[in-house]
Amino acid sequence: xxxxxxxxxxxxxxxxxxxxxxxxxxxxxxxxxxxxxxxxxxxxxxxxxxxxxxxxxxxxxxxxxxxxxxxxxxxxxxxxxxxxxxxxxxxxxxxxxxxxxxxxxxxxxxxxxxxxxxxxxxxxxxxxxxxxxxxxxxxxxxxxxxxxxxxxxxxxxxxxxxxxxxxxxxxxxxxxxxxxxxxxxxxxxxxxxxxxxxxxxxxxxxxxxxxxxxxxxxxxxxxxxxxxxxx
Length: 231
Hints:
Blueprint: H1 5-16, H2 18-23, H3 29-39, H4 58-75, H5 93-103, H6 106-114, H7 123-135, H8 145-159, H9 169-173, H10 181-194, H11 203-212
């Protein structure tokens, strides 16, 4: 028997923010350009932090993206001209304790239980949250529920094609989440900037996070592939 309750719940939540999506998110060049820019082998996996003006054409916006892209690439290059190697994704003991304690938060656990098919919170997306916390150099007091959802939103927008990410808004923002969506999107952009626009996370970096606590329940959230017969 096919179990699709999780997907249906996600679709309901996603459709509930359809108006918000039309009026704000899709007008944000970050959201419009996510998949195109991250799928291109020439961009280095970054999204320039520029905003579209009312009278700007698509060509002008693209030119701004290209210029900012070059600036970011330049910052990533050392004085010797060699690109910096990707850093290891290993949490120190205090960070590790804070992160796993955060996963036990009642609201976060409720959200994870709701996402029973792991559409927006599988093992790799959760590991990306830990990597983002490390890259942003969060203090222990910044390992908060809100920052968890902000990092998960960024990871989901980067990795997933389906627009189920809106399902996390009620859990992150509460009952009046429609009025506060702009707030979490601004926080997402701020986190992106704080990480020096390094949002891509390799599989090996995720596996480094897994290896620190291999038997934890979070790393057993393996997404199942749905065959055509099951659809």
